[in-house]
UniProtKB/TrEMBL annotation:
Residue ranges annotated for the Zinc finger CGNR domain, each copy included: 25-66
Annotated Gene3D superfamilies: Jann2411-like domain
Alphabetized InterPro entries for the sequence: ABATE (IPR010852), ABATE_dom_sf (IPR023286), Znf_CGNR (IPR021005)
Superkingdom classification of source: Bacteria
Descriptive protein name: Zinc finger CGNR domain-containing protein
Length: 75
């Protein structure tokens, strides 16, 4: 559980992104409305979003909505 305040996260992220050791782990957020750079610290290097709680959830919700949208019975 990460309870760091958002501002601190942004500042820390900037430093992390600049670290040479993290260059090969840089990735682009998969959210089309975000496209933020982030360092993929996951073991499998399959992280897709800059922040799972923001972009990850947003994307999941959008997909969930599309998948569970009730068919419109017109007429
Ligand atoms: Zn993002």
């Amino acid at each position: 559980m990460d309870l760091t305040p958002p501002v601190a996260v942004v500042a820390a992220d900037a430093l992390v992104l600049l670290a040479p050791a993290n260059r090969d782990r840089l990735a682009l957020c998969a959210s089309p409305t975000c496209q933020e750079m982030f360092v993929d610290n996951s073991q499998s290097h399959t992280r897709r979003w800059c922040d799972m709680n923001i972009c990850g959830n947003r994307s999941k919700k959008a997909r969930h909505r599309a998948a569970t949208r009730p068919p419109r019975s017109g007429a």
